[in-house]
Amino acid sequence: MKAHPDLLDPSPMSKNKKNPGSRGSSPAAKEALFPAAASDQKKSKKIALKTKAKPVPVSPPATAQDIAKALERIAGALERLAPSEMEAPAFAAADAFAWHAATEMLQPVPRVSRVDIGLLRGIDRIRDTLTENTERFSRGLPANNALLWGARGMGKSSLVKAVHAQINANLLASMPPLKLIEIHREDIDSLPHLMALLRDAPFQFLLFCDDLSFDVADTSYKSLKAVLEGGIEGRPRNVLFYATSNRRHLMPRDMVDNERSTAINPGEAVEEKISLSDRFGLWLGFHNCSQSEYLDMVFAYVDHFGLGGDKDKITAEALEWSVTRGARSGRTAWQFIQELAGRFGKALG
Asked: Does residue 313 register a pLDDT over 90?
């Protein structure tokens, strides 16, 4: 039996049938069969050779001097990030200031817009009470926070500024002047910070907030309560707080009525809302004036500024002015005087 010729003398065709991936395959054959893989292998070898040819340099250990310089740079950066220390206000620059919470600055007010206390008519008892309380405070004696509430335009804020001027005019030369600082209703949240600035100053400060009131969703009244009384620091001995408002309890009436009707314990809810006004030891109420009091205010201004003219004519015009404005008040009287002085060509100094 003869052997098959292919088994005795394999042809080139049969050699190509061998497994190309066998150990017998040459590198040239592999490269011909798998050109992409061969190219990747060459690139990997070149990268490995380059990496070995360039060893990574090792930094020398840091000296004590280098560490000290690095720490100095870190300390400088932290100082720049930290808030700058606020300078002590120049309280000697003026007797009145306006507090700006956004910049934490007390701006001096060289000339206060005020009315002479003798021109405030129809509020004699209130004037005397507030003057006496402020005068005691200016001498370092105990005094009460004051809430001036009631009818609009009846001289609440004018009385505070007039009393401040009168107290300073009557102070002894050896006593430091009383400082008036106005804080806006929107900045009440910054009141604790302001009081901290004033606590150690060698002056007596009268803080004044005009038209103070709070809406239903406003909770800043709670911080004011703690500042006036109840906080662990308490009100500084050299600070007194005066506020004016059209509302007796500083809250809208419907807010109090709503608490009475919806709260689980109406008594406690109402007490929470109106307890702020209890922080004021003095409640001074202002009411609408009568016609005679209104005319008294008008002619007090006429005499003070030297505005001549027929008395009967001025009376008739003043009454007509109050009717068109819908109110008789000190503000209405002052607005009429401005109109009258303008017609007469006189400046109101």
From this structure: yes
